[in-house]
Amino acid sequence: MSASRLGPRSFSSPVPVLSPAAFALQLLNEFKDHLASGTLSPEHAHQLFDRLLRQRVPVPQRALNGLLAALARAPPSTACPDGPALAIALFGPMAQARRSWARSPDIYTYSILIACCHRARRPDLGPAFFSRLLKTGITADAVTFSSLFKCLCDMKRPEEALDMLLHRMPDDLPNVICYSVILKSFCDNGRSHHALDLLRMMANKGADHSPNVFSYNTVIDGFLKEGEMSKALDVFHEMIRQGVAPDVVTYSSIIDGHCKAGAMDKTEAVLRQMVDNGVRPNAVTYSCLIHGYSISGQSEEVIRLSEEMRTQGIIHDNFTCASVMDYFCKKGRIKEAAEFFYSMAEKGHKPNVFSYAGLLNAYATEGSLVDMADLFERMVRDGVVLDHHVYTIMIDAYAKFGKMDVAMLFFKDMLQQGLNPDKVTYFIVISALCRMGRMDDAMDKFSEMIDMGVPHDRDVYRCMIQGYFRLGDWVKAKKLISEMKNKGIHHRPCKGIGRTQYV
């Protein structure tokens, strides 16, 4: 026998064979890992889910529910932009897997799915899942009902949700969350009086039905949005009588209502009541106060409150910053507005586009084009997303000071950023070109405006007509006048250059 045959034999390393249970666990972990990292595409999810359901070892229903719940809560990602919708899509194969009782959907499965219908903006599917739940003989709980109510309210059917709550739910099942879903729907749709009736019904029932601070805050906010301050105050006093303590949201809402009405003396009274009851004002409260004092012209209070926020360690939010800066700018105190703006940035507060726009507009009004340009460059460096308002400010400022070429560069950049100019932007450009006698360029922009479907009214026609009159081009001016009449745009006589013009 040869030596080679007697020598040691080499074997490749054996590949471990996973048990069915271990393999199912591996698939579950792979699903979770991809979901957590934002790399789970719908196609991959369906593949993993299909392999999971085909395992010989039943997958615990709790684990499957966990996956659906994770999808329901998953933030949008490039791979999976809509986790709740994907959860609904995966339910089909899951419901068809009849090999084991462990895969039969339970109450938690249906609760998750109905909630997903609300989050995925497919509320019409919610009642269908609820009907399927009832056919299985599973008893619905308060969580399931509240998710169903959200779907019905999304479909503008709050009366149906209320009827189900009052007549189809067991008496011991409705809780404050179920009621609050319907309360919010009424208030969001301008029907706060209906919400108030329901709120009082809750209070009369008592026990688990009793409204809480969130219930009252919802109705108060609803009345304030509808401009019914007196009704909001009625609810505010009613909640106190019912023994429900107002929180910072309640007080801030009432303060904001008084501020918008210019009743700063009443605002101070509510603020004192708030502090006396041990509720500490937050950034929202201060923002409402600063905005109120700003529009009422009480500069000392604006400065005092801003400083008080700083000493209290409360960080200015974007709305507060914008309110303080707006006050300074309206008073022509541009330097103080700029100092406040940059001090906030130095303290780590990142101004938003509204704060930038306020200071940009102040510089533009003052004619400080260099400061305006520097601030615009800072916006770009800080990664602030530019909007129509910002570009319009820049275009208008340069156009007014005769720097039309620079204005048009901003106009072009606006288009490149995917922002279509609106009626105001086009009017600024067209009127500036007309003043400069550049009627060919003005007509190009006017035609572009029409082609883009931007609404054009008497003002832009009048601008174009007057521009042609100044150049002595009566033919084109009259042509535009006829075009106005044919489009049904009303015109009125106004004084022109040397003669009456009908525009």
Average pLDDT number: 85
Strand arrangement in the largest pleated sheet: 1-2
What proportion of the residues form beta strands (DSSP E)?
under 5%
- Please name the CATH topology of the domain at 21-155: Serine Threonine Protein Phosphatase 5, Tetratricopeptide repeat
What is the gist of this entry?
By secondary structure, the chain is mainly alpha-helical. The chain has 27 helices and 2 strands.
Describe the protein.
This protein is mainly α. The chain has a domain of 135 residues: Alpha Horseshoe (Serine Threonine Protein Phosphatase 5, Tetratricopeptide repeat). Helices cover 69% and strands 1% of the residues. It contains 27 helices and 2 strands. Strands 1-2 form a two-stranded antiparallel sheet. α14 runs parallel beside α16, α18 runs parallel beside α20 and α20 packs parallel to α22. The longest helix has 18 residues. The radius of gyration is 32 Å and the shape is globular. The N and C termini lie far apart (115 Å). The N terminus and C terminus are likely disordered.
Helix/strand layout:
Layout: H1 3-6, H2 20-37, H3 42-53, H4 61-73, H5 83-96, H6 107-119, H7 125-135, H8 142-154, H9 158-167, H10 176-188, H11 192-205, H12 213-225, H13 229-241, H14 248-260, H15 264-276, H16 283-295, H17 299-311, H18 318-330, H19 334-346, H20 353-366, H21 369-381, H22 388-400, H23 404-416, H24 423-435, H25 439-451, H26 458-471, H27 474-486, E1 493-495, E2 500-502
Essential attributes:
503 residues; mainly alpha; Serine Threonine Protein Phosphatase 5, Tetratricopeptide repeat; two-stranded antiparallel ribbon; 27 helices; 1% strand; globular
